[in-house]
Design goal:
Blueprint: H1 2-28, E1 30-32, E2 36-39, E3 42-45, E4 54-58, E5 61-67, E6 70-78, E7 84-91, E8 94-102, E9 108-115, E10 118-119, E11 121-126, E12 132-139, E13 142-150, E14 156-163, E15 166-173, E16 179-184
Parallel strand pairs: 1-4
Antiparallel strand pairs: 2-3, 4-5, 5-6, 6-7, 7-8, 8-9, 9-10, 9-11, 11-12, 12-13, 13-14, 14-15, 15-16
């Protein structure tokens, strides 16, 4: 019995050492943005075109991590003025998780969630003036549930019930809040 416990300890130790070696060696590879090239969603080192594993960075900060050329974790882009442009979370090269997009003045324009490269969950958009523009639910990359839009002034423009990307029912409003139209639609 002692022998089996010793073997299990050794196997566990080997596993932990290989795990830490992989993660620390992966995390220590850093590449300047001008030394790499992105081709068909895969990042390569320019000098020999091998897929990189490590962190790509530029003068604004870390762009993101790559594993065997594919995006992994939080990735960022910036405008020339240094303001953040977007933050998107990746897993195995696909958009998976939270995302945010801003304009060049720092105003948040859109936020939501991706699941396997498709929009999924609650998505919000804003006008450049900061007023809400759109709130909608997505399921499997298609609008599903309540979709609400507003005028740039902040008044509600429409409410629509969506199902698998199609409008099922809806209402539209004038800028003063008076209802223009309402109705139900045939399912496809």
């Amino acid at each position: 019995m002692k022998f089996i416990l010793e073997v299990m300890k050794i196997k566990s130790l080997i596993f932990l050492l290989s795990f830490f070696y992989y993660h620390f060696s992966y995390a220590q590879n850093r590449y300047e943005e001008d030394r790499v090239v992105l081709d068909h969603d895969t990042m390569f080192l320019k000098k020999d075109m091998h897929k990189i594993s490590g962190t790509v960075y530029n003068k604004h900060g870390d762009i993101g991590n790559f594993y065997q050329g594919l995006r992994e974790g939080l990735h960022k882009e910036w405008f020339r003025n240094g303001n953040i442009k977007d933050e998107i979370t990746y897993k195995n090269g696909m958009k998976n998780g939270e995302f945010r997009y801003w304009d060049d003045k720092g105003q948040l324009l859109k936020e939501g969630h991706y699941l396997n490269d498709s929009l999924d969950g609650f998505i919000k958009e804003w006008y450049h003036n900061g007023n809400i523009k759109l709130e909608v639910h997505y399921k499997n990359g298609k609008m599903h549930g309540l979709r609400t839009e507003w005028y740039k002034s902040g008044h509600k423009w429409s409410e629509q019930q969506m199902e698998n990307g199609y409008v099922i029912s809806g209402r539209h409003f004038y800028n003063d809040g008076t209802e223009i139209t309402h109705g139900n639609f045939l399912k496809h």
